[in-house]
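We treat protein structure as text, and this decision shapes the records that our systems exchange. The tokens are whole numbers drawn from a learned vocabulary of local backbone shapes. One such record is reproduced below, unchanged from the form in which we store it:
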Amino acid sequence: MAPIDLNSDLGESFGPWPMGDDGSMLAIVTSANIACGFHAGDPAGILAVLKEAAKRGVSIGAHVGYRDLVGFGRRNMEPTSAELVADTIYQIGAIQGLAKAAGTTVRYVKPHGALYNTMAHDAHQAADVIAGIKAIDPSLVLMALAGAPIVEQARAAGLTVVCEAFADRAYNVDGSLVSRRLPGAVIHDPEAIASRMLRLVNEGRIIAIDGTEIELAAQSICVHGDTPAAVAIARTLRDRLIDNGVELKSFAHG
């Protein structure tokens, strides 16, 4: 059985407004997608999370997103190619600088929210983000939605891609994520989440929201850090996987 990576979106607090329990999540996950200041996060808070991640040996990814603090990066946007390429470079560069100061290194890029979902199927925006990554550091791994067109597009462009599944999100029959605007889009039961992810790891299958069984090949599992039960979900999932002989290990080396 191949090892599996557990990742979470962290560093999203802003000034005096906390978002999630980053310290507890860093004790559970093997990779951390760190906000870059465009959809969430501030420099001091991001640096603190990076230092804690370095102390715990958690791999670091740049969680790049649309320039959308008010909407938490979850609103669809249509930046020009020049804007999106430059925004991608800018965000990665910011995290690379902070990571160096924290004694760690950025190993991968995981787009956030609306950008992530748009890129999964929009070849134009995907190409812009891919171009931004290649311009600043082509050795960075891209984390992308398992089964989506972006996976082959990025690989064809020369990037290494890690496919991701979402522990606490419902899936459509085509492998896309159910819109957060719809009921049932976010799953909250830790035991149910642990069971479905164990089956995904063992069999490569998951049940879509309409009851259809779909195939999904993933090397990393995401647990969102901003939901009320995030830590309980992540801990239950980690324990279930370990108890069933699954090795938890980041895909990023070094």
Summary: The chain has one domain: 5-243. The first helix runs from residue 22 to 26. The chain has a mean pLDDT of 95.
